[in-house]
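Hey there, shall we discuss this one?
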Amino acid sequence: MIIGGYKVGQGIYKVINNQEHLIFNCKNCVFATSLADDKACRLHAITFLAKQKADMVVLADVYERVYNSDQTTLLRQIGELYSTFTAQGLWGPEHLSDGSDENEQYTANRHATLAKIASDYLVSDPILAYLATIDEINKEKLRLTKLGSKYQKGAMPYLETLIYIYQSLEKTDLIKKVKDYLQKLTNIPDTSQLYRYFFNAEIKPSFIGSRLLFGEIEGLVLVDEYMVGNTQIQIFKQPDSVEYLYIANPPEYSLTPDKYFIISKAREIVAEYKPGSAAFTVGAKSRDYFERVFLTTIKGVSKANNIPLTLDEEKSLSEIVARYTVGYGILEILLSDKNITDFYVDAPIGDKPLKLIHSKFGSCKTNILYSDREAESVVSKIRAQSGRPFDETHPVLDYDLPEFETRVAVIGPPLSPDGIAFAFRLHKTTPWTLPQLVDVNGMNSLSAGLLSFLVDMQSSILVAGSRGSGKTSLLSALMLEIPMSSRILLQEDTLEIPAMYMKNIGYNVQRLKTQSAITTAKVGVEVPPDEALRTALRLGDSAIILGEVRSKEAKVLYEAMRVGAAGNVVMGTIHGDSAYSVWDRVVNDLEVPTTSFKATDIVTVSRPIRFKGSLKRNRRLVQITEVKKHWNEDPETEGGLLDLMSYNAKKDNLDLLEDNLKDSELFTKIQSVSGLNMEQIWKEISMVSKTKQYLVDLKNKLNFSDLLEAENTTIANTSLHLFREKQMEEADVLNWDDLYTTWKNWVDKDFVPFLNKKYDRK
């Protein structure tokens, strides 16, 4: 044990995650490496704990058995009792008899019994020590009734010592738990069964720092279960908590000893290997390369040690080793679960399990207890990949993990005085669509039709809301309403919108990555947002999309909009909880002149709604507001903000404010440039709304969630445009009812059968 630089025996004493760990190196141990199954292991742990306090005991072989703080406390109390008994010399002469000659003949047996109970049994099998003490007290009381008064007088010190041992043991938490447990049983089992009940260890490979907590699930309700890769995920509702419990059980925590040996040996071998530059082909990822190296090494190790593995087992083991060497460790489980929107590793790391936000169940507590060692490894990877510093001078590190469609923000001292902390934001790998938002009640079909029409009319739209309100989701859905023939310039400082997916399904998207707004290290190669936007405006006629309007680029954008240089639809997200707060932020915080702000046509506001005080947050579109043009200083007092739709919480619906439409300047403008009158405009909006709702109803009727994905709704939108063009060519006038019927028949007769074949649905 290492204490203050000194090593004693086979134990290593170290601090991990602010907890004192007593770690035993069991690689060459002949015993069973288990406190539950081996008396020798218990003896070593208890005698060490008698000398030095520790929070946890770890038995380390090719995998580690971790005994938590509660279990360690049970053993430490026994160790402290052993130290007390030893100091008191309970098996000394004064504890054996009164010193009379009549009792001399019994002292040898009494000494052997006390030494066995208070020393040998106590440190190797304390439960047996307790049971043996009870048995010996009963036997001694029986002897007292049979052997006369002289024996009784001489035996009293011995009996009193036994009773003292018994009472001392009953004060320990271990014996209290044993007594409670035994009361539920009809027969006293072998003590080994009791130790297996109280000392069920958490098992993990020795090269993994994180621990998984598996507590009692009695009383919990399983609400969902699914696989993330080869990892089982279970989600439980807790009766005494508003949070759900997210349980991950990755395979690396339940491998056989042979497999632990193989992956540990393979990891050691590859750690000595330094690949040259020729080892990587152009475009190949180092992760893929190392998985191949690990696979080859695992094959060799299993063959050399005569441990047969199937091809699937070899591949699974190579993925596990890669995860904990060139990958992000156990965090990859969460990064790969696309039901998760955010998860957090708070400082001090290791004190509490990780927390996450689940798209279905909201806030969840996980069973993952992360480690400082793994956190430092992840920071090193991010720092190396980003080329950005991370130290006390630069305590913020912001980076995108493109392989996981995730943004990570890391903070450290002195900004985070308790140590390193992480926040991960997972992006949806496919963009949200308006039908999907309608399907989850984020908006209704009428608002979807209205916004789709306004995008088609090349309006400028600011999508406002608080963090986590769904701004980016709505923005990506509105982008899909831009005709595929248009060019789209998308500018983001953090890559949240799946632009490459949109390109793959046919959209003409050019993405611009700008300097992060939150990192404290301004890397010279990154272009500031305002400069990037000036460049975008010179790249030709395009729809301009800003991931977030937050800084100097606002002035550039509004100047371009005001003079008509943008020339197409302009959209972006901005923080704000109302149209008025958006004006206040743009004008007073971002210093855009009021005259320029009037170039905004529409402000939408999204907000998380908690119905009737419930803790569950429901994302809703709550406001669609037109920015009118004829006002001077304050849009609220001068009637410059006109609500077109407003949220009704009692009905959970976004209502159309029909009386306000007569005052709309935007619709008057649209009439002048489109040739449509108001009746025709609303027939168009109504028809588009019906198409969105029909897809949602069809998805639910057929239980076909892929129907609403972007690649499929895009086909449906394009077909609607083509049917419209064809009708205009044939009749030079639109009949919206006929157009909807034609499109609906195409969906039923052609589109759904096509998708059934595509997704192999019967």
